[in-house]
Predict the structure.
Amino acid sequence: MTSVADDPTAEVTDLLVHLIRNACVNDGTMASGHESRSVDVLAQYLGATGLDMERYAPAPGRESLVARIEGSDPTAPTLLLMGHTDVVPVNPDGWTHDPFGGELVDGEVWGRGAVDMLNLTASMAVAFRRLATSGFRPRGTLVYLAVADEEALGTWGAEHLVAHERDAVGADYVITESGGFQIPTAAGPRLPLVVGEKGSYWCTITVPGTPGHASQPYRTDNALVTAAEVVRRLAEYRPETVIHETWRRFVEGVFPGVPELVDADALGPLCETLPIGIARQAHACTHATFAPTIIHGGTKTNVIPDEVTIEVDIRTLPGQRGADIERMLGDALGELRAVVEITSGDDNESTASPTDTPLWDSLARASSTLVEGSALVPFLMVGATDARFFRRAGSVAYGFGLFSRRLTFEDYGSMFHGNDERVDVESLALSTRLWELVAHDVLA
């Protein structure tokens, strides 16, 4: 594999700062995001290379950028490096530094999106430009995609592109977020590579009641009181523990001395004693999860509410379907299941890619070159990424990057959608070098 000697740290740091300061905040509405701001920056950054670039905007401001280095052999594989440009909303009151300041403090870039995932979006762009300016002429095609709307449902980004612009983004191999943080073990650093992700079964629970004057609450049919009991039961529900193959391989690679992590009976009690970040990951990786997140109800302080709606974020494990979740909801709610109405959205099933692929092998070689003694371990993403659209279209899609030891597993997990999000510049350089090595290895 070919290595690039000059240091990309300053270049990727500067680009990341610009992307953070663009504040492409996606609140889930069509009018948010404004990803065209970052597409402008990236198009200007990549434009000097003379690369082929196209911009796609299925809705005003919701723009994605595709750049290509065409391969010489149409039978060779295509590799797509995909990073999103939107970020989630933020409450600045919980931050030490301005979440959209892009400040460099003690070797770390602070800001919303620094970890999720503007660091990779920037490093992929820098690697892409460095490859182009170095005269990289591969057999296979290299595609860079800066995509909109990942932080909502992908409607104005990856979902649209895969459905309507397949020629522009179709690829044999796709790399996006997230993984590659170093977990120290006795055998050397282990690097989680996301091979799949949980599915989703978001739903709305409508709780009926009977209106009345709130000055006489005794024996009223108060929908809010019933809704409170629904929320309590969902919060206390404990679904069955499922030890699937991806989790088993992850534990064998990282925690071989903790057999309780792959024991369905012992895992639940163990999670009560683990550090909170690891406990949440272990639990979410092995259970369907039910999280009530939004509640609406009532019209006036002195009126007993006759209807309350509860929105529930449900994430499903590999192999679980809507019928399984309906059964679990019945178990959780008991007799209240007959009282409430449940309206579900799409049954987005879990997706996964195999590990016995040339891309896995290439990522293993490249990462071990950059992080001595390291090895990959498969991991399940408990949230959702745009990789799911590409897996369903037939691509092998992984989540990966490469981070320094400064970014711990605990910090990595807590900063996703959290306060004080930041990434160190060593990690930015490592990821940039990783993409260059993999492009040479897979496509040359």
